[in-house]
């Protein structure tokens, strides 16, 4: 049957359009995923950089405190010369001893912080190189996506022209059937026809009654009562 065959050709074109549209949606989604990964990597590195800055500030504060300890120790040591009683002298020596111990603990803390800072700097450089790689990968991926989308747009234009020509062929035979097909297509997105498979709709598996099978074989147009697709037997389609 020529009408069914021409509708089948139209459906194949519509499937091609659906695939192109799916690619037009999928590619930007993949690009957005890559962009999100890049943004997360940038944020992570930025946070890491802030940690290093805070560590440097903390070390400077400790070094400043260390100078205060040195000043206090020197001041107390100078006071030893003016002490007149053994009790006061011993007490001041204990204060100097305690201050030196605190200074020693602070020096250890500074050294530990500096070693930790060096480890952080080394790790930062490694992660910065990793970010550079992600940046380059994203740039290349974006260029590929932009190129693919442009090619898809060009292909879509060609296929749309082909569809218009095929639509006119179908419309010249039966406009009402064409509109019914397109209504089903608008709901389903990619097809408006389904082949009969073992007496059932090849899409939703709804069973055809004998009269529908006979009618279809006789050249009548039969739409599936459940999914609304136009039914056909493959041997009725001119290849």
Element layout with pairings:
Layout: H1 2-79, H2 86-173, H3 175-188, E1 193-197, E2 200-201, H4 210-217, E3 230-232
Written overview of the protein:
- 79% of the residues lie in helices and 4% in strands.
- The chain has two domains: 2-177, Helix Hairpins (Orthogonal Bundle); 192-236, no CATH class.
- It has a three-stranded mixed beta sheet with strand order 2-1-3.
- By secondary structure, the chain is mostly helical.
Descriptive tags:
single chain; 239 residues; mainly alpha; Helix Hairpins; 2 domains; 3-stranded mixed β-sheet; 4 helices; 3 strands; 4% strand; rod-shaped
Brief summary of the model shown:
The protein has helices at 2-79, 86-173, 175-188, 210-217, and strands at residues 193-197, 200-201, 230-232.
Which CATH class of the largest domain is shown? Mainly Alpha
Q: Report the portion of residues in β strands.
A: under 5%
Low-pLDDT stretches: none
Shape: rod-shaped
């Amino acid at each position: 049957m020529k009408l069914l065959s021409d509708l089948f050709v139209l459906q194949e074109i519509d499937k091609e359009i659906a695939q192109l549209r799916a690619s037009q949606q999928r590619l930007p989604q993949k690009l957005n995923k890559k962009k999100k990964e890049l943004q997360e990597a940038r944020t992570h590195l930025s946070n890491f950089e802030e940690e290093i800055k805070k560590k440097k500030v903390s070390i400077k504060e400790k070094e400043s405190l260390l100078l205060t300890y040195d000043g206090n120790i020197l001041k107390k040591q100078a006071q030893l010369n003016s002490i007149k009683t053994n009790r006061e002298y011993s007490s001041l020596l204990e204060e100097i001893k305690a201050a030196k111990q605190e200074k020693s603990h602070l020096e250890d803390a500074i050294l530990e912080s500096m070693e930790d800072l060096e480890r952080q700097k080394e790790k930062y450089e490694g992660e910065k190189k990793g970010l550079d790689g992600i940046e380059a990968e994203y740039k290349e991926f974006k260029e590929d996506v932009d190129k693919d989308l442009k090619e898809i747009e060009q292909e879509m234009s060609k296929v749309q022209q082909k569809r218009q020509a095929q639509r006119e062929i179908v419309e010249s035979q039966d406009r009402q059937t064409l509109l019914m097909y397109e209504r089903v297509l608008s709901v389903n997105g990619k097809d408006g026809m389904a082949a009969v498979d073992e007496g059932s709709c090849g899409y939703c598996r709804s069973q055809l009654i004998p009269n529908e099978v006979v009618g279809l074989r006789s050249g009548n147009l039969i739409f599936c009562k459940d999914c609304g697709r136009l039914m056909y037997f493959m041997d009725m389609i001119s290849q």
